[in-house]
Amino acid sequence: MLDDFKQQLPDMDPHETHEWIQSLDDVFLREGRQRADFLLRKVLKRARQLEIGIPGLIQTRYINTISPEQEPPYPGDEAVEKRIRRIIRWNAVAMVTRANHRYPGLGGHLSSYASSATLYEVGFHHFFRGKDGGQAGDQIFYQGHAAPGMYARAFLEGRLTEAHLDHFRREVVPGQGLSSYPHPRLMPEFWEFPTVSMGLGPINAVYQARFNRYLQARGIANTENSRVWCFMGDGEADEPEALGSLTIASREQLDNLVFVVNCNLQRLDGPVRGNGKIIQELEAVFRGTGWNVTKVVWGREWDALLAQDGDGLLVERMNETVDGEWQRYSVETGAYIREKLFGTDPRLLKIAQPLSDGEIRRLRRGGHDYRKVFAAYDAAVHTKGVPTVILAKTVKGWTLGESIEARNVTHQMKKLTFEELKKFRDRLELPLSDRQIEDEPPYFHPGENSPEVEYLRERRRALGGSLPRRVVRPKPLPMPAGKTFAEFDGGTPEHRQVSTTMAFTRLLRLLLADEQVGRRVVPIIPDEARTFGMDPLFREVGIYAALGQRYEPVDSKLILSYMEKKDGQLIEEGITEAGSMASFTAAGTAYSTHGEPMIPFYCLYSMFGFQRTGDLLWAFGDARGRGFVMGATAGRTTLNGEGLQHEDGHSHVLASTNPAVVAYDPAFAYELAAIVRDGMRRMFVELEDVFYYITVYNENYQQPPKPEGVDDGILRGLYLYRPASAGAAGPRVQLFGSGPILLQALRAQEILAADFGVAADVWSATSYPQLRDEALAVEQWNRLHPGEPERAPYVTRQLAGREGPVIAASDYMKAVPDMIARWVPQPFVPLGTDGFGRSDTREALRRYFQIDAESIAVAALSALARLGKLPAAKAQEAMAKFGIAG
Ligand SMILES: Cc1ncc(C[n+]2csc(CCOP(=O)(O)OP(=O)(O)O)c2C)c(N)n1
Ligand SMILES: [Mg+2]
Fold it and tell me: Which of 342, 436, 476, 810 is deepest in the core (most CB within 10 A)?
C-alpha cells in the first residue's frame, strides 16, 4: 500500500511535514473529501508548473482536458461546414441504404461514421495535409467501418460519381466499384492503409510515424511535414496490436503521431465497458505509457453547467456513472436523464433546473462538437516531444434516429426505413421531398458551384489536395551491380561449409554495400540477429536509434561492437514480430507513401512469420508492399533442437494463401542469389506489387557451383540438378528435394544406384507454389480455349518422357509438394514433415518424419514395386537394412 509514495530520504524537518499533513486533515474534516481533492490537485498542478518532477496522474477527472477558456477560436465557416457535414452524412447513409435495398446482403455500416463524422470533418477542413506538388502529406489511417463517409465526401468533392456510389461493395466490374473498406489492392488510387482488421491500423500507424523519422534521419526523405493520424474505435482498443506498441511512440518521442479514438462506448455486440469507463481506462493506459492525452468528453453545452459545479458534485457524478448508463442516457428522455443523472442530489438538480427536458437531451458529447474537436487537434499538432491521443466521446449512430442511435444493434444496421429517412432528412434540414425519398434515398449534391462545394474544395486546396488519395510516383531503381550476386555462383571450397542463412547474410552485406541501391536496403530484425549471424551489421551499418547511443556499450572494445546511432540503417525491433511487420510495411510501401522506394529485408524465425503475424502479412499484400521476408532457421528437422514451437514445417503452406507472395525454398547459395536478384528486378525495376518469402536454413554444407543454364528453372521452381549417371541401367525414379533435404535426395540417389541398381534423377524444387501458379494459369487457359491445342504446364513439360515415379521430399508438410501433384504425369509420392515437431538430432528427426536419404530410397523402391518394376521384396530388404519399420 502507498508504495508509490515511499521514499528513503530522511525527513529534514518533521515539524513542517506534520503541519502540512495537519492542514490536509483539517480540510478533510471540516470541508470534506471534495475540497481536499480539489486542493491537492491544485497543489499537484502547481508542482508541475514548478517542474518539481512529480509524475503526472494517470487518470484525470471525467471532463475535457482542454477547458473552455483555453479553446482557440474556430477558424472555419461554421455554418457552411455544418451543411457540408449534413450532406456527407446523408450521402453516406443513402449509399449504404441503396446498396442494401437493391442487393440485400451486400452489407455496409451506418453507425461508425455517424458517430465520427465531426472527428473526420474537422481534420479534412483544417488539419490533414494532402499530396499536391509531390508532397507526401499526412498519413491517415481511417477507421475501416467509416469508409462510407469518405466516399460520400469524395462524391461531394466531385472525385466520385453517383455511379461509383451505386457500386459500393460491387467491385467485380473493373474501375467502377467501391471497396467495402480501405483496400489499396482494390482501389489503388484512393486508399493507402488497410485498417479494417481491428488493431492493425494502430500498430501500423505507430511504426509509420517511426519510419517517417527513420527516413528523415537517414536523409532519404524530408518527412518533417508529415503527420500520422490514426482513427480507431474504442472497441478496437481490445486488440493486443492496438495498444501493444504504444511505448515505442513515447520512447522515440513521436510527436508526429496523433491517435483519435472514437469512444462511442459501443463495439459490435454491445457496450465496450458497460460496467466501467473506456475513456478513463484508455487514458490510464496512454498516460502510463507516456503519451499526451486529450479527452474530449463534453460538448460546449456542458460548460455552463460545469461552471456552476462549485462543489464538484457534477464532476463526481460524471466520474461515477458507468458507460452502460451513459449509453442508456443516449436513448432516454430528458426527464429520465434529469432524474437519474441529476436527481441524486438537490444541488445537482438545481444546476439542471434552468434546462428543459429537450435541452437536457440535447447536451452533446464532446466528439460531436467541432469546436472541442478543433481545440484538441490544434493542441495535438502543437505538442512537442510526445505523441498525442485524443479520446473523443461520441454516440454510436448519432443523428440516425431513435431506433438506431446508441442501440445495441446499431452496428448491424444496413439501411433506414422510409420513416427513419424522413426524420433523418428533417434533422439534417435537406431540401428533399417525401416523394423523392420514398422509393430509395437519392444522393444529394448542392451543385458544382454551391458554396458548400466551393468551400470544401478551397479548404482542400489550401491543405494540399484531396484525401484519401494514394499516389505512386514510379521510380524504378537500377539493379545492384552484377558482382553482388556473382560471388555465389562459384560455390564454396570443400572445406568451407556454410548454410543458406550465412549465404544470405553475406548477400545482404553485399547489397548494403552496393553503390546503386545499398542505402535503400532496410534490414529489419526482431532480436534474432545473432541467431542468424547478422550481428556484424550492428557495426557495419549501425542500428537505428532515435536518440543515438547514450552509453558506452559493454562490448565497445570489440571490433563488432553494438552500435546504435541516429542514422543507423538496421532496424533492431526487439522481440516483436508484429512491430517488425509494421516496420516492414512502412518500409515496403515507402515507394508510394513518400515516393522513395526502400528495399526491406525482414529476417525472422520462420515459425513466427505467417503463423504469428499472418494478418499483418495479409495487410501488407493489400497495401501493395514490396520487400523480402526471410524465413530463417527454416525446416521442421533442419532446426532440430528447438522443438514443437520453433520448428517450422508449414510456413510455406500459410504463405501460399497470400496472393501477393512469391515464395521460394532454395537449397543452395546460388539459387538464393538468383531468386533475390529476380525479386529485385520484379519489385524495384519492373515495379510489381508482390513480395518475396524465402526460407533459409542453418545446416552447413559445401555450397556447389552453379550449373549452366539453370536460372530459368530456379525461378520457375524446378530444374534437373543431377541426372543419374550416364548409361545407368535398371529402373528409374525422379527425386525432388528442396532446401537442405535436396542433399538427402542426392544421397538417396547414391544409395539407390550403389545398393539397388536403381537410376535416380535428382531435381531441385525451389518453389512448389510458383509451379502451381503457372500450372493453374495454363489450366485456366485450356478451359477457356477449348478449341485450341491443349497447353502443358511447365512442370508437366519438364517431366514429360521421364521415367519412373516422382518422390518429392521436403522439410515442410507434404501439402507443399502436393501443390503440384495434379500436373505430375508419373505416380507422385510426397514426403514431408506433417505433425508437431520435436527436439532431437537432425538425423533422428529426418528418420522420424521419413525424409532422410534412406527413407527417400525406400519410398522410391516401394513406388517402383507398386508399378511392377521391382519385386516388393527389394523395398522390404531396404527397410530391413535401414531399420525402417513397416
Ligand atoms: C480483427 C477483427 N475482428 C473482428 C472484426 C469485426 N468487427 C468489425 S467492426 C467491429 C466492432 C468495432 O467496434 P469499435 O472499434 O468500437 O468501432 P465503432 O464502429 O464503434 O466505431 C468488429 C468486432 C474485425 N473487423 N476485425
Ligand atoms: Mg465503438
Answer: 810
